# Entry
Amino acid sequence: MNGRDLTVDGVAIYESLPSALPAPGILVLHELFGLNDDIRRITDRFADLGYVAVAPDLLDGGRISCVARAMAQIQRGEGSILDTAEDHLRSLADREDVDDRRVAVVGFCMGGSFALLLGARGTAQAISANYGIFPGDDVAERLCPVIASYGGKDHLMGRDGIKLSRALEGTDVPRDIVTYPNAGHSFMNQAEGHRISKALIGRPLMAVAFDEDAAEDSWERIDAFFAEHV
# Structure
C-alpha cells in the first residue's frame, strides 16, 4: 500500500495504491467532515484489499457553505458537487493502472448519498452506500449493484435502508442491504468531527458512534460484494 496527498486541478486528493497493478478502482466519498485522516485510513484499507483507491475533497476543506450546497444537491439529485464526483470517477476509470475500467464507489453519510446518485449514472460497476439518504425510487430503479449499511439507532437516516430495499423490490438489481440494530450513524467512521455532531444532533437523534462489530461486518460484506461485482 502506498498512500499520498495530491492536488489535482486545485482539488485536494488522497490516493492509495495496492501492491499489484493494474487493479480495479475505488472512489471514496467522505462525510460532512471532508477529507480527513479517517477517510485516509479507509482509503488505505481499500488499497490493502487490492484497489486503486482515490478520495477527493468535495467540500473545499469543509466550508459550511459547501456543506449546505452539498445537502441541497442531494435533495435535488443533481449539481456541481455531484458532477465533480462523477468527473473523478471517470478519471479513475481512465487511468492506466486501473484494470479494464472497473470502478466502484464507496461513500459515508453525505458521501453515501452521492454514491447512490452516482450508482444510477452508468459508470460504476458497483457502489457501497453507508448511512446515506435514500434519493428516491427513480434513482433506485437505475442503480448498479449496491451494498448499503445503516444503523438502527440512527433515527434520522436509519430507515433509509428499508426505503431503499422496498424501492428495489421487483427489480433485478443485485443488492445487499443491512440495518444493524445496535449501531448508530457513522458507525464505520472515527472522525474527530464526531465530537461536533454528537454535541449538536448526535444523541439521541442519530447516536453517532464508531461500532467495531458493525464496522467489521460491513467491511467483510463490502469486500465480498465488490469481489463479485467489480
